[in-house]
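Researcher: Can you fold this with zinc ion in place?
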Amino acid sequence: MLIKRAALLDGTITDIRVDTRIEEIGADLVAEPGEGVLYAGGGAVLPGLHDHHVHLRSAASALDSFFVGPPGVTTKAQLTQLLSNATPGPDGWIRAVGYHESVAGDLDRTAIDALVRRVPVRIQHRSGALWILNSEALGRVGLAEHPDGRLHSADRGWSDALQQRETDLAELSRRIIAYGVTGVTDATPDLDADAMVSLVVAHRRGEFRPRPSFLSPGKKILHDDRLDLDSLTTWIAEQHGADRPVAVHCVTAAQLVVTIAALRAAGPHPLDRIEHAAVVPDDNLADLAELGVTVVTQPNFVAERGDQYVAEVPAAEHRELWRVASLLNAKVPVALSTDMPFGNGDPWTAMRAAVYRTTPSGAVLNADECVSARTALTMFLGRPERPGVARTVETGQPGDLCVLSEPPATALAELDAGMVAATVIGGELVYFAM
Ligand SMILES: [Zn+2]
């Protein structure tokens, strides 16, 4: 297809011929017979965004789930009202996501039974690593005798029973491409081969348009109470021995420190990643740079949960939270992502969070970590396998583009998903805002 009058980020107005790759860029390109033409009208044309850390199955499930955590639900009374009035989904279950114990403490089966007894209820903790089921739900997944109904993702055996259901990937796909996103990396830790194959098949069939990438199998979630340097080092060495980079999830300083030590001991792989890096002490900035490891982070959590951090994290440690600018200054490759559905899946919201770092109440968390709009945008343009290296609109680059309704200066000033006018994947127009 041919895109007429596209504005590149440097302000150049040009035409772009795109197929599976960008074939030609130049003034006054002429449409070939039968070639589709999209008039960008001076709107910015960018490489399609890539969301470098998402959970697709959970995101598809979350589409018909109730959200039961802050900021929407903050009290036990609100939780009670929501669950007791909830209409079950087509499969008869009530599903809820986003729970945090600040709402009504550590829920268990008895507490949910008191609200809903006859309908199966499953509530996912916002960490994504814990589900709480009522007695009816436990009976349906063969765990009627479970002591408290709190199921951790680390406990194998039941998670497949919970996850198996029709998920609406097509609807999720529509939402993702409307953000101008042309590729996603599924970072789900226990994603098995079947799940990956089914996503790839859905992509080939056109049910799921964004290009899927996977971190599996070289990825690991750490738990503070089970941190073990030797076993982590051995695991990393094994992955690297098979020429597989690793992606280690680090949400605490302890996890980061042990991961850095393990990467040092095992030796780094050029495509290694650290997911989240929610807390980075000053001392570790240089370590990360030296290891060459890419940090895939989510400053959108500042915009979503910032007030809770301000309240719960000692003030002296605020500077270590969800860092971006200091990582870039230390020459650490950094990419952004949303962690959808645990974070809001709109990457433009995440970009604004990286620029302004405003909490829901309007405070600014860690202003030293703010980056420019151009930098925030660029951190969503990375290559799937090298998130810290941005794609560009140049001949030979992938034919995946995001066309905005506004010129570059306005686009950078606004960073708003509402500006996405069209999304092109592999030279095919997959989204067009009417
Ligand atoms: Zn995640």
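Model: Folded with zinc ion in place. The chain is about 30% helix and 20% strand.
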